[in-house]
């Protein structure tokens, strides 16, 4: 693999999940470019873990379309086709979000709303720190929370299969935006629509903000 990027050692708990998040983050941020080979032994050594969790993490990344593993040629990072993302993954995201948003006001309780508000507050901190990756990561966590708590396990699985592509797109959009301070405000506005079960404003918001 490239000498310019190395993985950090990980704590012992949830090794597969930690390996998965580390590799996925590196792919989404562009630290591991398309065509980059992923070597289980090298990643495991850099993280200070065995190959098993890394192998499981790569298997999940294969399923999500971020990597491709050939039985005899190893694993490579796949290129994220912008047209495919725009015409397939973005519309899929919008459909999922509209579905769960309509159910959210009936399923979420005060604790859920507090958790979502805390994510928005963290977005404000990330914006103040000009931390684009953290801001987009919190954006994804906000919407993932809604999908996980308001959708079925099947819908949540579908969401997880597209969200890495969406995260990469958000990063690109963030780079070209003149200002990121509107992101927390947009999410607070959206949360208010959910609280009041204003379906028309929810749909209008999603249509104008998911592209």
Automatic annotation (TrEMBL):
GO terms for molecular function: DNA binding; DNA-binding transcription factor activity. Gene3D superfamilies: GntR ligand-binding domain-like, Winged helix-like DNA-binding domain superfamily/Winged helix DNA-binding domain. The keyword Transcription regulation applies. CDD domains: WHTH_GntR. InterPro entries: GntR_C (IPR011711), TF_FadR/GntR_C (IPR008920), Tscrpt_reg_HTH_GntR (IPR000524), WH-like_DNA-bd_sf (IPR036388), WH_DNA-bd_sf (IPR036390). It comes from the Bacteria. Signal peptide: none annotated. The keyword DNA-binding applies. Coiled coil: none annotated. Residues 13-80 form the HTH gntR-type domain. Keywords: DNA-binding, Transcription, Transcription regulation. This is HTH gntR-type domain-containing protein.
């Amino acid at each position: 693999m490239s000498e310019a990027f190395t993985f950090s050692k990980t704590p012992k708990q949830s090794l597969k999940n930690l390996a998965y998040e580390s590799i996925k983050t590196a792919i989404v941020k562009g630290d591991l470019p398309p065509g980059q080979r992923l070597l289980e032994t090298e990643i495991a050594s850099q993280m200070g873990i065995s190959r098993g969790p890394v192998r499981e993490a790569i298997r999940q990344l294969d399923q999500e379309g971020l990597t491709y593993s050939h039985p005899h040629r190893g694993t490579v990072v796949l290129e994220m086709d912008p047209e495919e993302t725009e015409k397939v993954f973005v519309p899929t995201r919008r459909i999922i979000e509209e579905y769960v948003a309509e159910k959210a006001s009936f399923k979420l309780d005060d604790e859920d709303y507090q958790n979502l508000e805390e994510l928005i507050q963290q977005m404000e901190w990330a914006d103040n720190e000009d931390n684009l990756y953290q801001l987009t990561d919190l954006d994804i966590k906000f919407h993932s929370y809604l999908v996980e708590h308001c959708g079925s396990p099947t819908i949540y699985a579908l969401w997880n299969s597209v969200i890495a592509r969406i995260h990469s797109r958000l990063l690109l959009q963030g780079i070209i935006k003149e200002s990121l301070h509107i992101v927390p405000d947009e999410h607070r506005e959206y949360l208010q629509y959910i609280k009041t079960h204003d379906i028309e404003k929810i749909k209008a918001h999603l249509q104008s903000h998911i592209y």
